[in-house]
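Supplementary Note 3. Input sequence used for the single-chain structure prediction.
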Amino acid sequence: MDFHTGCRKTGRVRLCGIAVPGIGKMHAARPRQRTKEKSMRFRPCIDIHNGKVKQIVGGSLRDEGNRAAANFSSELGAEYYADLYRRDGLKGGHVILLNPEGSEYYEATRRQALAALAACPGGLQVGGGINAENATQFLDAGASHVIVTSYVFRGGVFRRENLKALVDAAGREHIVLDLSCRKKEGSYYVVTDRWQKFTEVKLSTEILDELSEYCDEFLIHGVDVEGRSAGMETELVEMLAGWDGIPVTYAGGIGSLEDLEKFRAVSGGRLDFTIGSALDLFGGKIPYETVKAYT
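The predicted structure, written as discrete structure tokens, is reproduced below.
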């Protein structure tokens, strides 16, 4: 991505300057600054696949046949976990729909997501198939934010017009951009379509600067280590922690309390974190009662 100056007003935001092949330019004003003294917070999660709360191995999702390698599948509904998070005062957690629209399981997955939002109104963010047409439905159902990747990076290409439509529909203050990434040729590239497709966008502090003008937070999974409890993507965490902007939540590879302490040391406590399959709630070994103290 190259960055250029010059911009035009389009509704609520200024769009100009990010040059992406075949798309044009978008340039943002100075991003809001993240407080240096910010303490890291635990962001709980509820991942829903085929109508059930699950924890999956990163990169294993396949739309064909609704397949995924699962570390954990719960017999409890999504509303159980949402109510638990509400009672424990945890906010900013993520509800993720892992089936695409058109899947035979989509409606069952969507019902679970809506039940979670109803159980914790205003306390959860929701992602998975979000676009400018349905974003307000989820906000009206109780989500504090909508989490978006595929709509903005459709077909692996940055779509300026889709980002503009989303901001116009939902408002920047209700948008979380998911820039989850995988490593290719020594760099981290944003991946989309449930982490199945590489985009042309290489993650960098410059990209974070530009895109932060159009969202309230970033959510970034280290997909190659997600669900493996084998340690974080240290290089990625270092880059994110070195950036000074809006809140960033990191997910991927934190598999023990030792890993969590290493994450704190590497990040300087400047990033929030999510733990999924390694949490005892989902069959892992990290005590939920310990990590919920990070609020």
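Helices lie at 78-87, 106-119, 135-140, 160-170, 205-211, 234-241, 257-267, 288-291. The radius of gyration is 18 Å.
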